[in-house]
């Protein structure tokens, strides 16, 4: 059974709304006025909101904005008694999903409500399901195009962020560490552009990188990313196809002289933001592990 909450300016009698209400049924008892709208939504958790639109439209637009901010998964349908005004169009831009006229019978309101509830309920179920993910794995093979790095980092952040215990701060730190690791694999690994050159001239560094993106053997190389996220940790293995380097020769990023270097800064950030940073012996594969605090105990995924 669908749960529908009607929001109107007041409890005063409105013949159009009364007639409309009889046609749809399933309304939660009583009409929710603007003054108590937010608390009523929180208490009743409706499937859909019907918002009588007209009169004090600026107040209604402000209320709609607050509803979309606090209850983004609950659809709002506008009920109008007259013409489509500029404010009604603005309400659609603010997030209302449909309009029903209480005077015209061009659409079956009950059928329209069923469709809206059905569509949004699928989205809410998926959202709930994503919150129950306990293990996910994904693999990517990137060309040497820096434009691919940020979308990939955002995706990996989103996947890790679904886990309980991965708060916004940890999510941001993870993104910075992944961004540094992917840039290193692409520029220093596959394209073999030295960080010393970047220290001397950023423009010269990028010029060499762009040229090698079009030149063999550099252009054929790829960056391979394997991501594994569980309730306890997010693990990322990033491998390039370059010649590698000696990880033992990496300078200490905490030394004052190295903090001003781009390479030293990147290593420092990665070491600060993940619990484990480990290169393979060849130096062309990096493993980053970010622990997820307070994993839920028991449940379908176990502890």
Notes on the structure:
- The structure is a single chain.
- The protein has 303 residues and is of the alpha/beta class.
- It folds into two domains: 4-130, Response regulator (Rossmann fold), CATH 3.40.50.2300; 135-291, Histidine kinase-like ATPase, C-terminal domain (Heat Shock Protein 90, 2-Layer Sandwich).
- Helices cover 44% and strands 18% of the residues.
- The protein is built from eleven helices and ten strands.
- The protein has helices at 15-24, 37-44, 57-70, 86-93, 109-130, 149-161, 168-190, 195-200, 202-213, 256-259, 262-273; strands at 4-8, 32-33, 48-53, 76-80, 98-101, 135-142, 223-230, 233-239, 276-279, 285-291.
- Strand 9 (276-279) and strand 10 form a beta hairpin.
- Helix 3 packs parallel to helix 4, helix 6 (149-161) packs antiparallel against helix 7 and helix 7 packs across helix 11.
- It is elongated and about 75 Å long.
- 23% of the residues are buried.
- The model has no long low-confidence stretch (mean pLDDT 80).
């Amino acid at each position: 059974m669908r749960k529908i909450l009607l929001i109107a300016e007041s409890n005063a009698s409105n013949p159009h709304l009364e007639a409309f209400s009889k046609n749809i049924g399933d309304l939660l008892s009583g009409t929710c006025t603007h003054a108590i709208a937010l608390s009523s939504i929180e208490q009743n958790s409706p499937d859909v909101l019907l918002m009588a639109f007209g009169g004090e439209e600026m107040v209604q637009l402000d209320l709609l904005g607050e509803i979309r901010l606090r209850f983004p998964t609950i659809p709002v349908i506008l009920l109008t008694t007259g013409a489509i005004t500029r404010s009604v169009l603005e309400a659609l831009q603010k997030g209302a999903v449909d309009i029903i006229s209480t005077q015209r019978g061009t659409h079956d309101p009950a059928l329209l409500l069923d469709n809206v509830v059905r569509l949004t309920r699928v989205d809410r179920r998926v959202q709930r399901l994503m919150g129950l993910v306990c293990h996910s794995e994904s693999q990517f093979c990137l060309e040497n195009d820096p434009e691919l790095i940020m979308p990939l980092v955002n995706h990996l952040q989103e996947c890790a962020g679904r886990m309980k215990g991965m708060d916004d701060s940890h999510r941001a730190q993870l993104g910075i560490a992944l961004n540094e690791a992917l840039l290193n694999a692409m520029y220093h690994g596959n394209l073999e552009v030295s960080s010393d050159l970047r220290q001397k001239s950023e423009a010269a560094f990028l010029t060499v990188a762009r040229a090698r993106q079009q030149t063999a053997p550099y252009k054929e190389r790829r960056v391979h990313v394997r991501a594994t996220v569980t309730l306890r940790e997010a693990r990322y293995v990033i491998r390039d196809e370059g010649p590698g380097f000696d990880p033992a020769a990496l300078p200490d990023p905490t030394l004052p002289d190295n903090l001003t270097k781009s390479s030293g800064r990147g290593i420092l950030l990665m070491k600060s933001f993940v619990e484990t940073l480990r290169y393979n012996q060849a130096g062309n594969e990096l493993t980053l592990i970010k622990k997820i605090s307070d994993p839920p105990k028991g449940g379908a995924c176990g502890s």
